Amino acid sequence: MIKTHWLAAVAVAAAGIVQAGEVAGTVKTSRGEVTIERAGQRLPAAVGSEVLAADRIRTGPDGAVGITLRDDTLLSAGPNSSLAVDRFVFDSTTHAGQATTSLRRGTLAVVTGKLAKEAPESVQFRTPTSVLGVRGTEFAVEVAAGEED
């Protein structure tokens, strides 16, 4: 039984699947005050910083951040934003997986990547008042101050 679980774990790792706590993407641009909240700590979100599934990214009044996820999805958050990568699972070979991202406050521009092209129903963007499904596209969303956070 243990041998079977070990083999399954090796197969998942070899397939390139990313799960909570593992690298979902990378900070490509960072301007002003930008932090990553992870496991109760606030870390500076410098260019090249890893973004993990379950991370929350916050920008200050002068902040902006650009993140590229492993499936080539591009996320750009503006000033006073709070964005969480709730779930990110991606198989780099088959392009299958799931992604759920929440914008709790601020602005977010998105250019979807391989996940949305492969299976649009597997990608969701949430706000305090709605859930957006995507169909392989570009879009922007804004959550007004006071709706969350």
Question: What's the gist of this structure?
Answer:
12% of the residues lie in helices and 48% in strands. It is mostly beta strands and 149 residues long. A hairpin with a 6-residue loop joins strand 8 and strand 9 (97-111).
What does this structure look like?
The chain has one domain (2-143). It is built from 2 helices and 12 strands. The protein has helices at residues 2-14, 114-118; strands at 23-31, 34-38, 41-44, 50-52, 56-59, 64-69, 74-77, 82-90, 97-111, 123-126, 131-133, 138-143. Strands 1, 2, 3, 4, 5, 6, 7, 8, 9, 10, 11 and 12 form a 12-stranded mixed sheet that branches. Strand 6 (64-69) and strand 7 (74-77) form a beta hairpin. Residues 1-20 have low confidence and may be disordered.
Structural class by helix and strand composition: mainly beta
Quaternary arrangement of the chains shown?
Answer: single chain
- Percentage of residues assigned to helices: 10-25%
Percent strand: over 45%
Task: Compute the number of helices.
Answer: 2
* Whole-number total of structural domains: 1
Task: Assign an overall shape.
Answer: globular
C-alpha termini separation: 45 Å
Which sequence of SSEs, written as H and E, runs from N to C?
HEEEEEEEEEHEEE
Mean pLDDT: 85
Catalogue the unreliable spans: 1-20
What's the total count of β strands?
12
How would a textbook summarize the main sheet?
12 strands, mixed
Task: Report the radius of gyration as a whole number of Å.
Answer: 16 Å
